[in-house]
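Q: What structure does this chain adopt?
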Amino acid sequence: RHILELFFQRVIDLIKCDSNVKAVLESSCSSNDIAEMKKRSPKMTVLNRVLAIEECRCAVWRALGLDLSVPLPVLNTERLLYGRVSDIGHDPGLQNVFVANSCHKDFKSFIAGICGLFKREMVEFDTDKA
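A:
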């Protein structure tokens, strides 16, 4: 979960500070979503909605240096991935992010992509053996 928090914080910072990302956001999103993203702590549902817009996702991915083929998985904001991804604690100094083999392939691809941003490595584990 911690790597997702790091990722989303970086995305929020980009949306607020990167002029190219801001321009795409302002041309692609509703005025309500733009206003929400300007808040100190925007709602995750709005951030997910913004990133689901292909132009916004691509602008953010470019600014982060992520390969544009890394998909944005469908993230359930009501139970945001509890039990699906674990950094073993809130911010351990570990280099691995453990992802269950039962997770959707887009989710695994997304996690593997953002792990590189934070010098971490994704490790898939078998839920039947865990």
